[in-house]
Amino acid sequence: MLAWQVFEHGEPADVLKLNEVEMPEPGPGQVVVRVKAAALNFPDVLLCRGQYQVRPPLPFTPGVELCGEVVGTGQRVIGNPVLPQGALAEYALANEADIFPAPSALDDAAAASMHIAYQTGWFGLHRRAHLQAGETLLVHAAAGGVGSAAVQLGKAAGARVIAVVGGADKAEVARQLGADVVVDRRTENFISVVKEVTEGRGADVIYDPVGGEAYAGSAKCVAFEGRILVVGFAGGTVPAPPLNHALVKNYSIVGLHWGLYKQHDLQLIADCHAKLTELAALGVVDPLIGGRLSLDDAPAGLRQLGAGESVGRIVVEL
């Protein structure tokens, strides 16, 4: 079978090699999945660079999210493969506990894109931040894969959504996603806009997968008893917030590492999947696909993702 492999760390386009490799052999509690679509994620870029918190042994195949068919049963599933045999290959290895029935309402590319981003959004908005109907939700990088999911889930929860994006094309995407207010950070100050549209109150929940200046600005426009969700650091800078500021403004800084729920309560993930499947059937969950690539073009997709040039999800289809 064909699989992209990393033999040394570096930029994806430089270090990925497409090779003929042996089919993966499942161990106890594992299955082999014929990959039909692999959604690219920023962790795939970090894995290639050797900068992710998990460092699989070299050589490895990246790809942390897929939709495919279980070999032997034909069941259509989504979920996370087991590294070092990831999803950027014709076949991948997965733990049975890490795969779920693919939503019938979504095609393979959309189904592959639903698991990580929407589970992260659901756990962040509902379990960690306890977003309520009528509250104001601010989403950074709202036209990206993680941000676009948060916009849709925020609207489904009855929140007023302010979307922050970078560029006029991404602003139009955020409007199509249903954001109530769209801010192009290249031409507008999102802090001023948030204060204006909330009459000075600020945003109740802020969804931040960016870090850096996005976080610093968020602390200036979070509401009394607001919650800043720390989802990731795609901007490359990990903030070091002064805790006295959280004290004097009476807001919460809430961390979210969705993967940890696998270690603590797998039933929560299964329950979330069931809810997301219902929302997909209703058309509320509809992953934004910004690019569909062949397996040969996977390195180019990872380069685009790593450069912050993507809109929605980039998916490799096999």
From TrEMBL:
Which GO terms fall under molecular function for this chain's record?
A: oxidoreductase activity; zinc ion binding
Enoyl reductase (ER) domain: residues covered: 11-316
Family annotation (Pfam families): ADH_N, ADH_zinc_N
Cross-referenced Gene3D superfamilies: Medium-chain alcohol dehydrogenases, catalytic domain, NAD(P)-binding Rossmann-like Domain
PROSITE patterns associated with the record: QOR_ZETA_CRYSTAL (PS01162)
Q: Its domain of life? A: Bacteria
> InterPro entries attached here?
ADH-like_C, ADH-like_N, ER, GroES-like_sf, NAD(P)-bd_dom_sf, Quin_OxRdtase/zeta-crystal_CS, Zn-ADH-like_protein
Alphabetical list of PANTHER family matching this protein: QUINONE OXIDOREDUCTASE-LIKE PROTEIN 2, SHORT-CHAIN DEHYDROGENASE/REDUCTASE
Report what the protein is called.
Oxidoreductase
Q: Which organism is it from?
A: Rhizocola hellebori
